Amino acid sequence: MEAILFYLTATVAIISALFVIKCRNPVNSALNLITTFLCLAVFYIMLEAPFMAAIQIMVYAGAIMVLIVFVIMLLNLGLAVKSRYSHGLAGGGFLAALTLLVTVYFIKFGEATGTGGEITSEVISSYGHTELIGRAMFVDFLLPFEIASILLLVAIIGAVILSKREV
Q: Are residues 14 and 76 in the same domain?
């Protein structure tokens, strides 16, 4: 039963990811990206990580997609995107196929490094996913977390400046 759910979700995720790059309307691409994010949340649930699934839905399928749709509508990209940048599709498709082949090769013929971390399944069951993620994010990786928040702020300011008609 789990295999059927996995293959069904993977099929929907792959099809919606293909529609993200095939749709000519940016809003339709954003809606397909939401479907892909929801499929990723289902994968997190199947991996017994409910906190990550909830964060996937709230942050990516919710907040980030609202921001993307807001920027699309703010910049009025509806008609401008259709005719521009179509010459790079062949090169992008070639690079995507090459990346897929390399990934399949390393998955099939590669081997694990044999190293293990200090977080085992016993540690996860005793502390819980949320506490371990929070401790790693706000203690071990506080500086990269703050740098990412500053970069997001700069991106929002840049989108507002680009959307102005007169500077």
A: yes
Domain span holding position 127: 122-167
97's CB contacts (< 8 A; 6+ apart) are: none
Structural domains counted in the chain: 2
Q: How far is CA 141 from CA 79, 101, 148, in A?
A: 41, 33, 11
At 108, list the tokens: 């099939």
Angle at alpha carbon of residue 98, lines to 95 and 27, rounded to 5°: 45
Do 76 and 1 lie in a common domain?
yes
Q: Which two tokens stand for residue 59?
A: 């942050």
* Residue range 88-109, pLDDT digits in tens: 667 667 777 887 787 778 767 7
Q: In this structure, what CATH number is given to the domain that contains residue 72? A: 1.20.120.1200
Distance CA 155, CA 149 (A): 10
User: For the whole prediction, is pTM greater than 0.70?
Assistant: no
